[in-house]
Amino acid sequence: MLGDELIALLGDRIPDDHARQWLADRWVPRFYATRPGGARVVDLGCGIGESLDLFRAHDPAVRWVGVDLEDSPEVRERTRGDAEFLTFDGAAIPLPDASVDLVYSKQVFEHVERPRPLLADVARVLRPGGWFCGSLSQMEPYHSLSVGGYTPSGWTTVVEETGLRVVELRPGIDAAALLVRRLLGMPAFADRWFAGTSPLHRALRRHPRLRGGGPRVHNAARLMVSGQFAFLARRPED
């Protein structure tokens, strides 16, 4: 059955609570359900700083820090100056050890040329029990200096090499929808496929071989064909 290989490899990292398509933004209210206000948050690969509004909506006292390269297409578009923005070399985050409660990284690591040193530095700056969450590409057309993609199992391997533990992997928009969106010139109507249920995932929901399967079975099948997927990892408590 589609997805059996992922279940065998990843087990309960593939959730069994529901099989809804996921956006990285949805980790944020879950984070604040477990933390008091005033957390220190790093948006790794922050670009224009869009996530600042998301975090401030949940915690006006958030200590948000945006970290990105000195120059990129997204950084060049940044106009806001109402937060702390730091530049880095793509590998060493300019913050002290164990000083961050959450590292948020939305659609960034497909652009990272040296992922392992950067992931090791994510683990370094996180406090014990800290969260690392976001999303990344698996199968997506070239965009904005992208250098590759990850499978859910490959991503789990490189993250857990650092000592972090991947807790959840959830499907994002399907790969066919991303390709069609690009071929059509990224029309506005296709944006709804990110937040809703994209067409291939909708078809899988009715696939006869998946009928009777629980949420983990459906999540695994969707992860197999997702163009993007979301992840949640944590630094173990010392």
From TrEMBL:
Transmembrane annotation, as ranges: none
One GO biological process term: methylation
Domain Methyltransferase type intervals: 42-133
Gene3D superfamilies named among the record's database cross-references: Vaccinia Virus protein VP39 (3.40.50.150)
Gene Ontology MF annotations: S-adenosylmethionine-dependent methyltransferase activity
Keyword Nucleus set for record: no
Keyword Lipid metabolism tagged: no
InterPro entries given in the database record: Methyltransf_11, SAM-dependent_MTases_sf
Superkingdom per UniProt: Bacteria
Record key words, sorted: Methyltransferase, Transferase, Ubiquinone
The protein's name: Methylase involved in ubiquinone/menaquinone biosynthesis-like protein
Organism: Patulibacter medicamentivorans
Lineage: Bacteria, Bacillati, Actinomycetota, Thermoleophilia, Solirubrobacterales
